[in-house]
Amino acid sequence: MSNSLNFKQTLTVPQFKAECGTASIDIVRNPKTDKLFASDDAGNSIAAVSEKAIDAAELVVSLVAGDDGKEFYLIHPKGSAGNNVERSL
Known about the structure:
The protein is 9% helix and 38% strand. The chain is mainly beta. Strands 1-5-6-4-3-2 form a six-stranded mixed sheet, with helices on one face.
C-alpha cells in the first residue's frame, strides 16, 4: 500500500486564507487521533497539517490528492513537495 501524494496546486498562506475567507488559521492537534489540522475563524477544519510544519520557518498550502484520489489541502514547510528552490530572482 502506497501513501504517495499528488501535488496539484500550491498557495501561499495569505492566498489560502483569502480563498477560504478567513482572517486567521489555527493549527490544532486532535486529542483523539493526535493528528494536526487547520481551522478557520469559525472553527471549521480546512486543511491537514504536516508534523514538520510545527517548527518550519516558512509554510505553504498545497492541494493534494491521495492514492484514493480524494483531494485535500495540506499545510507543510515550503520546499517539502520534492522541489526545493535553488534560487529566487
